[in-house]
Design a protein that fits this description.
disordered N terminus; ten-stranded mixed sheet; Alkaline Phosphatase, subunit A; alpha/beta; 14 helices
């Protein structure tokens, strides 16, 4: 994963030889169906934690999480989501596919996801015990049981005394939902004491989504001061699209949301610590692959904007950590590759020794694959809205954005002329806060010098692939 330790995937680890380890990043992965009982017994458990609207710079609130999953695992410093919106992002987590391929382009069309392409389907089919605890997909009816989960407590988003579907029964459960999710997950883990099957737990607290209601014990917790970043008080936004020029949120607005978000995340941190303690007690910490990611980021009044759904870094950069001690991923290293939520499903299937029979856009993080850029995309839902659909080429050193005359129709399908309505280019080396759009009033010669024709061509190819 990092330069100071060898690349070791599941196959190399299980073989236990230097020769096998040296070839661990090879693309061929054994089918679980062909695995014997000994190999099946070594398959890792999977704990996947996906928070809601958690931006990257929230470390203060999740210190126990970071100490475990990053400090005894891997911290991805360039972690992104490929669509900064809840349902599309979560569908990408499940399927390993871009939203333009899995079909959930907005929050209104969860049923567009082909459930046969999901990681939970593959794991359940391969003999895993599967569980879902928390939020599922926006617009999914609470009365509909989520496919391929054997045990679930699925939440109608909320913080206190919320509605749930618990294994097919819709009910109100009194209490703070993050704590309920924690307890339901712990009960699921406890079953491992008597059920020898490997398990997959998908744990999805509502934190830190608005209204960012903290648990009672954290309601007045003092959080560190934050005085913004250069993108917050940006005075001249004339080079930005109209919705940004019209934005009116202030530093005080950003500070208020940040404070509430951090307070809600403290309960998530408590839950994660409880999971670690339970796995330790069960003797299962070593061979559990743990992944932690936010479903999208959040702008704290950057460029005058609160929220997500924009091409700016705070909206699509997320915390992203991974630990798997049994495979040697326990050293507290950093990985600077450009990685995304589309890589989660391929990583889990690689670890479990499962070869999917449906296409995936992401790549296993257990191998050596490294991309030079990532496609990030977002759609306007319906023909009204303050910003146009956009797509972006995101690299470490630059970002190119195109807005389009496109939106999703009543079925969640893309419609419109597709005409480019606005473009942006940012030099992320010298302008990490995206203050200067170098394409604003740029001459054709300047565009050539920036390499825009090639970037536009690559972006078009990415959107079509």
């Amino acid at each position: 994963m990092s330069h100071d330790r060898p690349q070791v995937s599941r196959r190399g680890f299980l073989a236990g030889t230097a020769a096998a380890a040296a070839t661990a990043a090879a693309p061929a992965i054994a089918q679980v169906a062909a695995a014997g009982p000994a190999e099946a017994a070594t398959r890792p458990n999977i704990l996947l934690i996906v928070t809601d609207d958690q931006p990257k710079h929230t470390d203060w609130a999740i210190q126990k999480t970071i100490n475990w999953i990053a400090g005894q695992g891997v911290k991805f410093t360039n972690g992104h989501v490929t669509t900064p919106l809840c349902a599309p992002s979560r569908s990408s987590v499940f399927s390993g596919r871009y939203a333009h391929n899995h079909g959930v382009r907005d929050n209104g069309h969860a049923y567009n996801l082909d459930q046969s392409t999901t990681v939970q389907r593959y794991l359940k089919q391969a003999g895993y015990r599967t569980g879902l605890f928390g939020k599922y997909l926006n617009s999914w009816a609470l009365s509909d049981s989520p496919p391929h989960f054997e045990d679930f407590a699925f939440l109608q988003p909320g913080y206190v005394d919320a509605q749930w579907n618990v294994n097919g029964t819709v009910q109100t459960i009194n209490g703070y939902t993050t704590n309920i999710i924690k307890n339901k997950t712990l009960n699921f883990l406890d079953k491992a004491a008597t059920d020898t099957r490997p398990w997959f737990a998908y744990v999805t607290p509502y934190a830190s989504h608005e209204p960012n209601t903290p648990a009672a014990q954290y309601a007045n917790t003092v959080v560190p001061d934050w005085n913004g970043r250069p993108s917050v008080p940006e005075n001249d936004r004339s080079d930005k699209p109209q919705y940004v020029k019209n934005a009116t949120n202030t530093l005080a607005d950003g500070q208020a949301v940040r404070k509430r978000q951090l307070r809600t995340l403290l309960s998530v941190d408590d839950a994660v610590q409880a999971f670690k303690d339970k796995l330790t007690a069960l003797g299962q910490l070593n061979n559990t692959l743990v992944i932690y990611i936010g479903d999208n980021g959040f702008q704290w009044a950057d460029h005058g904007l609160l929220g997500k759904g924009t091409p700016y870094s705070p909206a699509h950069e997320v915390p992203f950590y991974l630990s798997w001690p049994a495979a040697g991923l326990n050293a507290g290293t950093t990985d600077n590759r450009i990685v995304g939520n589309i890589d989660i499903a391929p990583t889990i299937l690689d670890a479990a020794g499962i070869t999917p029979n449906t296409p995936q856009d992401g790549k296993s993080l257990l191998g050596s694959f490294s991309r030079d850029h990532l496609l990030v995309e977002w759609w306007k839902q319906g023909s009204t809205g303050v910003k146009d659909t956009w797509a972006s080429y995101v690299a470490k050193d630059k970002q190119y954005v195109e807005y389009y005359d496109l939106w999703t129709d009543a079925n969640g399908n893309e419609t419109g002329t597709g005409q480019v309505t606005f473009r942006e280019y940012y030099d992320l080396v010298n302008d990490q806060y995206q203050l200067t759009n170098k394409l604003y009033q740029a001459t054709p010669a300047a565009e050539q010098n920036l390499g825009i024709p090639a970037l536009a061509s690559q972006l078009a190819a990415d959107r079509a692939s």
